[in-house]
Amino acid sequence: MKTPSFVRMTALLLSTIVPICAQQEATPAKAQSDPGQIISTVGRLLEQGHYTRHKLDEEMSGRILDTYLQALDSTKLFFIQDDIDQIHQKYQAALGNEILAGNLGPAKAIYGIFRQRLEDRVTKIQIFLKKDFSFRSNRTVAIDRHKESWPSSLAEADNLWRDRIEGELLQEKLNPLSNDPGAKVVGKRYDQLLKDARERDDNDLLQIFLDAVAQSYDPHSEFLGPTELDRFETRMRLSYPGIGAELRSEGGYTKVMRLIPGGPAESTGKLQVGDRITAVAEGNEPFVDAIDLKLQKVIDLIRGKQGTIVRLQVLPAHSADPSKRRIVEMIRDTVKLTEQEAHAEVIKHEKPDGSVENLGWITLPSFYQDMSNAQSGKSTSRDVSILLKRLKKEQIQGLVIDLRNNGGGSLDEAIRMTGLFITRGPVVQVKDANGSINVLKDTLSGTEYDGPLIVLVNKLSASASEIFAAALQDYGRAAIVGDSGTFGKGTVQAMYDLGRFMPNLSGESDPNVGALKPTIQKFYRVAGGSTQFRGVASDVNLPAVTDNPEFGEASLDHPLPYDEVEPVPIGVDENRHPLFTEQLRQHSADRIAQDPEFRDIAEQLRQTNDLKKNNRLSLNEVNRRVQIEAEKKLKEKEIADGKTDEQNSHYKRFQLKLADVDKAELTPVDLVPQIQLAGTPAPTRKKVGSKGQPDDLPLQTASNDELSPTYDAIRRESLNILSDLIDFNRTPQISDSDHAKPSLTH
Q1: Which domains, ranges and CATH numbers included, belong to the chain?
Q2: For the whole model, what pTM was predicted?
Q3: Is 5 designated active site?
Q4: What does residue 90 show for φ and ψ, rounded to 5 degrees?
């Protein structure tokens, strides 16, 4: 398919489960154009450009209402069923026409109902908090209300809220790190929620509503306002102009939660984690007070052009006196998000016979690409190629590509990445709304690496990750190892600059209106099956806490269905190594059965599944303490088992980052300082419009190593499997992958 001229970027395959951090700095958002024009343009583009070509009829209007209501009230606790019925009765028949006419009125009216329910509820919550709770009852509270019904009445809502608040108070009582009384912590939480709601303006509402409209077509279509568009582009190019600080609104202040390594804030040492920004000034201009200012407005003040000066008035992290402030002056610079680049390790494996085996490990957080500078900007395939050259100098005998938690990225990069490991040939098939199929190929001859290869995945490996894994599996080039399957996102999105459809009074494109990212195509393996909904099945399955049906495309609302197309012929790569998947599975299963860490994982999975199945949490303090103690003992056992395995490990790891490729000696991983995380990502169902709520998003996406102990069972077993694969290729024997695959080679 030739990309239409009005599509600003190359096709993208971004998964919704890897959210862009809401607290990260963003380019100052300029005033948007007429909201009505934006709404009608989005509506027309979805009707005409989305893969389904679904009209904004009554059926779609009902979907949009449901998605919007869920966006505003994801816990289903503020609205009551009567509100929902009246909203559908009033708006469902004509909402599509209102969108095409550019009318934000229905969205504002519905938000008005929600806002009033929120105001009333927070007032009642403050009354609840004054009551005494014994925490001795046998009542329970729902953990996840996504599939629950709306309260039938205000009385039922009051009862649900009583249990919820009691649960939150009990949680604070059981929290060993909590310093303030539970009622104070919970009260501030809901005061902040109400403050955020009161600060929402029409631009905020436009973002929430149009995102709901787009996601009613499928879970990966999105509307991106100017700020969200800049965040998206930042993630793709892994850089942005600023000071390099991640911020959060807390207690009326803008608080520094994390410093980006190498950014001005971190390199100058002038700003510390925990510092609170009270005012901002541009150069020598007067300070603008930032206390109680909306977070995005503070971010807009801090951001600016590279090389310019910004001054911050800061209340130091450990100062209890709000009058003790200091002035911090910094020069804005390009902040590089190097933690999100591809990086590698050289692993020396001491075998039982005393020989040493050199193994390579490449961790790929995403398929990034600087789309504004495609020829020489940041690129996954270029970075991986650089790492591979150094790994080959280290004479690695096998390689693992770690795609765990990789939510996707650029389609072009997925194809180029595949080309590093196959000689040439088709990589993926793409079908548009008209049924036309285009086969996208790797056209460059040769490979960067042709040795034994493992691709490690989990249920959070999505989109471009699935294209890469599926192609290497179909070519018989790599064994796929990890969770039972990947996420299941087999759709392609394109980015449409709305300004190109909305010329301003001068007739030029308006750059301040954002973009629409609709699903325009589905992709299929060269073998003919789609990864949509089903994902890529692993050749060797490893037990993991992420292997859960709550994660993946099938758990989202409005997913497109699975289907198939005709397979395309591919040649047998002369460099392909036999995969011996049956033997790898058997050897791995034997080790896992004897591995105490995997037994710990199995027990953790059992507990998690029981909790999800019951979907209830006890409000009895004694019961909760018993549960916490059991979890604590399991965690202690996991740590002890992990330390024992690490001590007995025959694997020595050496760090290889892009900055290290020319170093004569690599640094042992044990000597690398450990990063103190501000938070760890919790994969959740995407909630449209919830980006401003206190605990929806972590401040950063941690790497796989940071999500688990330094030496984890899945890493160790993946290396064991790779070592087996190397051994099997040395020793002549019959491989299950030696048999021809007619559907692929005819």
Answers
A1: 34-217 (no CATH), 239-336 (2.30.42.10), 340-494+521-580+650-745 (3.90.226.10)
A2: 0.85
A3: no
A4: -80, -35
